[in-house]
Amino acid sequence: xxxxxxxxxxxxxHAHPDDEATSGGASLAYYRGVEGxxxxxxxxxxxxxGEMHDADRDPVEAAAKIAEIRYEEMANAAxxxxxxxxxxxxxxxxxxxxxxxxxxPASFHxxxxxxxxxxxxRLVRRYRPQVLITYNSFGGYGHPDHIQAxxxxxxxxxxxxxxxxxxxxxxxxxxxxxxxxxxxxxRAAWQSVWHSLRQNGEDWPFQPPxxxxxxxxxxxxxxxxxxxxxxxxxxxxxxxxxxxxxxxAIEALMVHRTQINPESPFWKLRSRFADTMMQKDxxxxxxxxxxxxxxxxxxxxxxxx
Length: 305
Hints:
Elements: E1 9-14, H1 19-22, H2 25-35, E2 38-45, H3 59-63, H4 66-81, E3 85-91, H5 113-127, E4 131-134, H6 144-159, H7 168-171, E5 179-184, H8 187-199, E6 238-241, H9 246-254, H10 265-272, H11 274-277, E7 280-288
Parallel strand pairs: 1-2, 1-4, 2-3, 4-5
Antiparallel strand pairs: 5-7, 6-7
């Protein structure tokens, strides 16, 4: 098969089951449903350290088989998003910094970097995506697994074509992805929600980060200025119109029942202001092997011909 005959393919590399729905999931639904693009999701960990929020499950019983439950939830989400394929990278959830799980040698955070990159290289070579998607270098919010996902995806982008580093015999024929994106959340969209709350006489529900020596407060203080949530829009390079598909991403997220806390301010706002916040997906073009323009409105901009 010549390169011109290889179908357009997106591979999204995520840390945990449910991340595929919150970071670019609507774009996966759009490209698969409208354009027939191959959509591949790689989930790096089993999600076993996440919280349990499914009120219909016995918490003790669920805790004993949490990874199994999350495999089932991920399979359901993959069907809703109509993914072409889903792959597990095979690592244990690392939990948050400072927890025992974060020191577990089986965790993604503790994985040998070259081995973890090699596992992803093997999948990149198998599916031959032109486009890769993951998180920014901070992992979006600092989770060790998200940061590790960024690192190995960035490395795989460069090394999937390097047969000296990863041999064809063990990892398959070389393949060079052409664009690597990091998912973003528009700061302007979050600030529009802040303005809406303010106009309704409602407070911003999030606490600012606690400073050293500062006492805990029960109520979030009133904010006089818009919050600096999300990515400054001046840094966003790529905007995808997903207004016909964002509810598919919401549906996929909701089947991760053990992960979603319905009382979380984050999810309450995302649900209440979905029409404001979720009709577009935002990305930053992090690496490219082809000339890029800005802004872009297509993840395959510059690749279709």
